[in-house]
Amino acid sequence: MNDRSTTITELKKIVKDFVEERDWSQFHNAKNLSMALTIEAGELMDIFKWNTTQECDSMMSEKKTRQDATDELADIMIYALAFSNRNNINISRAIEKKMIKNRKKYPTEKFKGHF
Amino acid sequence: MNDRSTTITELKKIVKDFVEERDWSQFHNAKNLSMALTIEAGELMDIFKWNTTQECDSMMSEKKTRQDATDELADIMIYALAFSNRNNINISRAIEKKMIKNRKKYPTEKFKGHF
Amino acid sequence: MNDRSTTITELKKIVKDFVEERDWSQFHNAKNLSMALTIEAGELMDIFKWNTTQECDSMMSEKKTRQDATDELADIMIYALAFSNRNNINISRAIEKKMIKNRKKYPTEKFKGHF
Amino acid sequence: MNDRSTTITELKKIVKDFVEERDWSQFHNAKNLSMALTIEAGELMDIFKWNTTQECDSMMSEKKTRQDATDELADIMIYALAFSNRNNINISRAIEKKMIKNRKKYPTEKFKGHF
């Protein structure tokens, strides 16, 4: 699969089928999934916790670290998709709308190069 | 925008442009982005922390909670896309590969209805 | 050791000695320790993520779960003590002051039994 | 209050009284408290997310940042104490036991100056 041709709906379907085949929707309420998402994000951080910001970037060129981080990112995405499946959230529109808010909150002329 | 027709590459581009316009790539190393991801996931949890799992599901039908949760999910997605942009991660393939591992780890016949 | 007679300074010293013996203070800047704290808190959550709030309470009576949760709580405390050591924070006074703010923010007559 | 003379039991009592006065023990199951702990840890991280590890240390000398971080650390401690209250955990002994495991896992001669 490739990002250039894969839609969000296709990714949602992969996660939906996996959950249904195991009858796991009973565990997938909003509270539990928000926990699962945070736990996976914590596991991604765990890779980088003792290194400087510069070291972390070069670590991403090492095969093992890169694979571990990619797997953790996939886990985060999988739970984000599961959360959207459960709650009928249109992810693309949610991002589109949030970016409009972000552009208002952080106008280019004021936030260029800093926060 | 709609999940049915929106590709991951299109969403990546929206985030990439936003970051470049503000010259924020200097902050977007792997370490910082993994922190930002976890913080946003924590904010999603914050909505649900004092309620039972059942209450949380019905809360997602209330307009205000639903909007807040959708915005937090968008933030999580935006940082996941930013992490992928920075590190040239093919998200669709990452999910595809991780799901193969997950299917091996959790075979249907053994994990149906429980963990 | 016993909570009735153990002071915060005594606990701080245990962590300080452990860190110094390994020459790990070079890793213990505020950023890294805040990450370590969150990761450990995520590991505590991991024990409870798929269970209802009621189930989680009774899980804490099972020996294995109780031991795992106690170890994770200890890890959280160890990093909170390490953060205080590094930044010369008087934990007792910090809690005392924060509780004054909390009492103002959540007056008993208004928040009894709900949020 | 001062870390040199304050015991864990004294701190536990402050949190216990606060919770009882508001009849909040109904919300303080193990699952909810593990979420609250992680959320607060995320708020501590939020202070440091876009800065280098070096910058974060010097930020802790600025009055405002130092106060914010101290408040967040207090919140983490308050929920760790609440978790211990709810589940009858002897924190001092938990730390003592965990440090024995840590010393075995990370012997000084092998881990001096690195991980």
Written description of the protein model:
The structure is a homotetramer of 115-residue chains. By secondary structure, chain A is mostly helical. Helices cover 73% and strands 0% of the residues of chain A. Chain A is built from six helices and no strands. Chain A has helices spanning 8-21, 30-48, 53-59, 63-87, 91-105, 108-111. The termini of chain A are far apart. The mean pLDDT of chain A is 97. Chains in contact: A-B, A-C, A-D, B-C, B-D, C-D.
List the helices and strands and how they pair.
The structure is a homotetramer of 115-residue chains.
Chain A: H1 8-21, H2 30-48, H3 53-59, H4 63-87, H5 91-105, H6 108-111
Helical content of chain A stands at over 70%
Find the structural class of chain A using helix and strand composition.
mainly alpha
Q: What general form of chain A does the structure show?
A: globular
Biggest contact: A-B, 78 and 78 residues
- In the predicted model, the low-confidence regions of chain A spanning at least 5 consecutive residues are none
